[in-house]
Amino acid sequence: MKNLINFLIQYSVVFLFLLLEIISFTLIVKNQGYQKSVFLSSSNSVVSGLYEVSNSVFEFFKLSAANESLSEENTALKNQIIHLQNELTALKPEVNKDSLNFKIPPEMEYELISAKVINNSTHKLQNYITLNKGSRDGIHADMGVVSENGVVGIVKTVSEKFSVVIPVLNQNIKINSKFKKNNYSGPLVWNGRDYRFANLTDIARHVEFSLGDTLITSGFTSTFPEGIPVGVINDFDIKESDPYYNIQVKLAVNFRTLSHVKVINYLNYKEQRAIEQAAEK
């Protein structure tokens, strides 16, 4: 108590100065119209600024949930588009000798499952992506995974709630791709260096193409339907003694910013795999 009294006595002049300043400021604001308007205007500006900062903070935390909702809605709309496209295809008659048949091509019977990326790497030789969907959501191994921009990878392992994807950025995976303009195809393989690029291999020297040409999925596997963007030709060269080009492809997907994907549920997967395995035996 004695220390407190000594403190107040020591700084009494300062406290008296502050008190007089507060009284003077209050009298000026109350009795002078201009100063009062300036004070109220400044107060409103400060308060509105605080509200703006507060709203920005709340919006930031709501953004993740909003993105999740938009991804689900987008996937539902894409599934409706696929369904309508298949119905339109079925309306085109396939002429036979005996009758007219209306059929949907079996390779086009698929639907999409939306998922969120919860773990991702891009700096390793064998990168992996973890999704927040698993077997209870209809996902199984060998399913193709895509984003809004193009091919992401293939599902490797699945648990009840999660799944692990081998992305294009993994040297253990090859994505069968083809030139959009001439249908020449070859496997796409990552070189293990830059997450933005991969190499298209087995393209013979007689094949004609140019910089900027688009690569899409070939549709030769049950993993991806035909026509999904893979990337564009960024650079190429060939030596006189080489039978094949060395082609660098700029990938359609930016794996550093990947947050939401779609898993391709090919509805005829089991039937196609069964008949192919029987043929191999």
Structure characteristics:
281 residues, six-stranded antiparallel beta barrel, Thrombin, subunit H, 35% helix, six-stranded antiparallel barrel, alpha+beta, elongated
How does this structure look, described?
- The protein is of the alpha+beta class.
- It has a domain of 170 residues: Rod shape-determining protein MreC, domain 1 (Thrombin, subunit H), CATH 2.40.10.340.
- The chain is 35% helix and 26% strand.
- The chain contains 4 helices and 14 strands.
- It has a 6-stranded antiparallel beta barrel with strand order 3-4-7-6-5-14. It has a 6-stranded antiparallel β-barrel with strand order 8-9-10-13-12-11.
- A hairpin with a 4-residue loop joins strand 6 and strand 7.
- Helix 2 crosses helix 3.
- The protein is elongated and about 100 Å long.
- The protein starts with a helix and ends with a helix.
- The relative contact order is 0.12.
- The mean pLDDT is 80.
Write the layout of secondary structure elements.
Blueprint: H1 2-10, H2 12-31, H3 33-90, E1 94-95, E2 100-101, E3 110-120, E4 129-131, E5 144-146, E6 151-158, E7 163-167, E8 175-179, E9 185-189, E10 197-200, E11 214-217, E12 229-237, E13 246-251, E14 260-266, H4 269-280
Antiparallel strand pairs: 1-2, 3-4, 3-14, 4-7, 5-6, 5-14, 6-7, 8-9, 8-11, 9-10, 10-13, 11-12, 12-13
Helix pairs in contact: 2-3
